[in-house]
Write a structure and sequence with these properties.
Chains A, B: Its cofactor is pyridoxal 5'-phosphate. Chains A, B: Its EC number is 2.6.1.44. Chains A, B: It holds the Pfam family Aminotran_5. Two copies of one chain form a homodimer. Chain A is α/β, with parallel strands linked by helices. The first copy, chain A, folds into three domains: 30 residues, no CATH class; 247 residues, Aspartate Aminotransferase, domain 2 (3-Layer(aba) Sandwich); 104 residues, Aspartate Aminotransferase, domain 1. The first copy, chain A, is built from twelve helices and 17 strands. In chain A, α2 crosses α9, α10 runs parallel beside α12 and α11 crosses α12. The termini of chain A are far apart. At the A-B interface, α1, α2, α3, α4 and α9 of A face α1, α2, α3, α4 and α9 of B.
Chain lengths: 423, 423
Amino acid sequence: MEKLRILFRPRTGIVLNVLCKQKTCRFRIAKSKMSSVSNPPQSLLKPMVIPQKLLMGPGPSNSSPRILSASALPMLGHLHPEFTKIMDEVKEGTRYLFQTRNNWTVCVSGTGHAAMEAAVCNLLEPGETTLSCVNGLWGERYADMARRNGAIAETINKPMGQVFNLQEIEEGLQKYRPVLLFLTHGESSGSTVQPLEGVGKLCHRYKCLLLVDSVAAAGGVPLYADDWEIDCIYTGSQKVLSAPPGASPISFSEKGKEKVLKRKTPVRSFYFDMNHLSNYWGCEENPRRYHHTGPIMSVYALREGFSRLVEDGLENSWATHKKCAEMLHEGVERMGLELFVQDKSVRLPCVTGVKVPAGVNWKEVADYAMNQYKVEISGGLGAQAGKIWRIGIMGYNATPDNVNRVLRALSEALKHVGFKSRL
Amino acid sequence: MEKLRILFRPRTGIVLNVLCKQKTCRFRIAKSKMSSVSNPPQSLLKPMVIPQKLLMGPGPSNSSPRILSASALPMLGHLHPEFTKIMDEVKEGTRYLFQTRNNWTVCVSGTGHAAMEAAVCNLLEPGETTLSCVNGLWGERYADMARRNGAIAETINKPMGQVFNLQEIEEGLQKYRPVLLFLTHGESSGSTVQPLEGVGKLCHRYKCLLLVDSVAAAGGVPLYADDWEIDCIYTGSQKVLSAPPGASPISFSEKGKEKVLKRKTPVRSFYFDMNHLSNYWGCEENPRRYHHTGPIMSVYALREGFSRLVEDGLENSWATHKKCAEMLHEGVERMGLELFVQDKSVRLPCVTGVKVPAGVNWKEVADYAMNQYKVEISGGLGAQAGKIWRIGIMGYNATPDNVNRVLRALSEALKHVGFKSRL
């Protein structure tokens, strides 16, 4: 070999041109035989920078220092006794939060949407009819999920900012004869709280089960899942519970459980299958078996979120949210702004919709609050995009201090964009 | 009113017996009108106690202090620019880990099983045939998930501890003509590493896509997703990446992406739908829209897991896992124990199967190691339950010190149960 020339062809591999006895021989080394590792991404060599913000949008809300430090506790195995004890405590917390004695009370290993999906794929079978009460984003999303699961999803509709009464629900039940009715307890897109008393009893008269999304409400407003005959209810961890998103409590009544146990078709999701999850979460006599690896640290943090709620007391938590929301409502009205929900009795304390006045760009105001105060104020969704702001008051963030801070930021931002109160 | 007697009936509510003009009138106050909150669970008023353990099972592995403290950083919104920057860095880390340039590179908001489910429900449509190569738990689980999704799941089978060769795979492709072939890269139940070179090309000759589960392998053994023509690959966060479980990287080739985009039926899961996830993870030109709330802190921690990998370098990581596994293999053989996998070339460095000698109870040994050393050694699964131990060496735990610690614990435990080496 007299001369060797190596050519690197990124797509095809290395080509060796060997000048050998005055003749060039070409050898190709297949790329898979000589794969070299690509350069490491430089961005990952720099530190993460996370600013401290006050999250007063519709969620996530801030976690308390105690909850945050729980996330940094040492890892445990997903079936270690110290961890299953924590799971049991999270179950107790969930039962307290929902005011239920349901045996099938677990967490789904994902964020709020995962719990919604778990409810849908456990409770519905292909071809069954479900009725979604749509007064904002969540009823629509539920209907979408139900259809993806092969169910027929009918809807009854109200504009955002309004709720359903028993008569409207009964008409829907009569018309569609669904096996499952979906209601959003705290409609974060329309900032309403749906009255739930009597709905469960009504549904049961029509041989229908009641599914309730309480992601943006549980812990912030009165809720009695057993008394109100709710068959399945779920929430998220990152709202009133003030834990990071990642594990979502869900609970099934005996009727709900029976519906799952009597399915003719398998649950379409293995990850969300309550037949397995109920065992992993220790709802059965049988010893826990490996189903999947739970989100260990998210469960630690959620446990501390429940601990906070229990120390405070559920009724105090409801009262605090009410008080802070009223402070906020008075404050924004004093600025000459109008609340989105007209009917005081159905205003969700956890998320407040505030109308954007004519001539004001909602985003300019929100950006100002973020840039100058590191306070998050969110915009509207769907039909209300650009027309309302949404201000969240949830869990650890539900204090008069924080309400004052968001009011100050909002008021200054409005001045900044030239809004003059009509008052 | 002369006399009033209140009876509390827990199930029906309050009954008022009013003795009025010598006549008792009975009033019932419906329970829902007077619901009182149940007592808060006392267990949640006590602090959490989490011991420090060395997790040398098949996962989760321990997180480094840096990764743990990232979990406790302040909360951000799921669409805040500081957070989407971190998401972008996680994507870069994922591409580096898998050695791919795939555009559709995201994380699923759940643990490893969630990523498997995302692969299944995006890539398969009802009625399509898939072929699962079963040599342990994961191939079986995949087939289960595929069937739940309406696909026809065929299998080719090998005993645990063995892998598939190209000829066996080709015979399966010829026989079943699947649209998707599933292989487990690191079979943690059988402690094998599946050779993947040539499989992608072979699949593509048969118009079949290749799906690879690399939960227990990625980062610990060589892997070149692009060169090996893998169409979809996923992993977990809690193995070699040493981050808490909760966010799971997944990546689709152009062919894989095309398969999803050309679906005739909607993806059955909203939560896992890549049509939405790819937008949320910034894989498109379009601005990111709200799809679901991501697991913020799990993504922080995963980002630091990738940072650790990038600082170390992928090739060093592979070499370290190999070196530590060899130390472990020599150590257990010196004790007179036998390794489960005969063929040295297919031993998975991340999880090692060790045969339980006749007359020894695996659990007694594992319990001793946990009680005396706080070292986790796991047992076998399925056909190998009770017959093997499984010892994990992954990521932050892959150090000679930890290997020595697990060997010491194992050796002492064996003495404790009266095992005498045959050597």
